[in-house]
Amino acid sequence: MAAILAVAGCASLPSPPQNPPFLQSAATKSRDNLTVAVAVLTDDEAREYFGCPLGDEGIQAVWLKVENRNDYAVALLSRSMDPEYFSAYEVAYLNHSAFSDDANRQLDEFFRRVQFPAFVRPNATESGFVFTIRQEGAKFVNVEFWHGDGLSREGFFMKLPGGGFDFHESDFGRIYTASETSALTLPGLHAQIEKLPCCTTDKRGDRNGDPVNFVLVGREDDVLGALTMQGWDPTETIGRKSIGRTLASFLFGGRYRYSPVSRLYFFGRAQDLAMQKVRETIHQRNHLRLWRSPYTYQGQEVWIGQISRDVGVRFTWQSPILFTHKIDPEVDEAREYLVQDMITSGFLAALGYTQGAGATPRDAPRRNLTGDTYYTDGLRAVMFISSKPVPVDQIHLIDWGTPLPSD
Q1: What separation in angstroms does the CA of 283 have from each of 94, 210, 258, 363, 376?
Q2: Are both 332 and 207 inside the same structural domain?
Q3: How far is residue 191's CA from residue 244's CA, in Å, rounded to a whole number?
Q4: Are 172 and 108 members of one domain?
Q5: pLDDT, tens digit, for every residue of 259-312?
Q6: How far apart are alpha carbons 144 and 75 in whole angstroms?
Q7: Same domain for 75 and 198?
Q8: Are residues 33 and 180 in the same domain?
Q9: Final residue of a domain: which of 143, 159, 175?
Q10: Which domain holds residue 40?
Q11: Among 242, 330, 345, which residue's Cα sits nearest to residue 286?
Q12: Confidence (pTM)
């Protein structure tokens, strides 16, 4: 039997361990009388639990445990977690053997049994798996339940082990001590954002780089979750492996979803996190950098950011790998792309613009650290990210000024 199943990728009929290791990495949150625990299985954990190499098929299993303390049932919206999620039978079928109908039926039944149920009954607890598209580095797990009183949602930004992703080097909660953090009012936040330096710098702080052109305000899970939901991927650190993959993508064409970005500095340190959206070629991408600031607003973190659009690759002596991306000189376009992305996410609660880097006209552009020119209206977009969905017609526009095109 084991040999038959091995032809399809499963070493044997699944025999899950009693205390699987992924339970140790589960995160738990409570809201609306629902307690939700989430764990994202690694490829090795999935192989151990299911007996099948799900990662080889591009599948990532997400474990859920939900305690419903309400007097009504709630229905899991699996599509909200992943619009391309796999059904239990689909996962089983990908691991079917060509030679044993009986083994295939047992595999079908196993995956059907471990799938998270469609409903959680009143005052009941259920657990099981949702089978999602495989991601590396980080995964945002959006858990939504529909019920008679509306919609309940909780989001989990899960860092995944393995790889060399730059945000693994940061512990966002320990960057500042409590005494180093200032709680700001809305006018205070406005004033403080306008006081920030215009631009990123090199490591020594001697030369200015790209302009700091946006701010995100919200809980870590909500901010990073909104970005991840909109297709932003974390980036790998610059190292031998990532440089090799970058060179291969550059020389032979192709997509490198987690390609690294260079280090820029703000608050005296390199970015705490970088994310990007890539096209099918390494030459074009949107990419952003984030720094956790020492400020909070209504108990929420304030993240300072820089975003630009890469439109090509060019040779340079200023890079250790002898080439760098060329940015679109109209950096305001990338900023507005991000604003529209957050509107589309459905979690943008409020939006305002402050003065920032200062206006730079087209006929007298500035240069970043690699020599690319850029121009800007000099404003910073400040986006407040909610924990719950916000209809577009309910997004609050803060009257801090209106962005104007540069000359």
Answers
A1: 34, 19, 13, 26, 23
A2: yes
A3: 44
A4: no
A5: 667 889 999 999 998 888 876 555 556 889 999 999 999 999 999 999 988 765
A6: 8
A7: no
A8: no
A9: 159
A10: 2-159
A11: 330
A12: 0.78
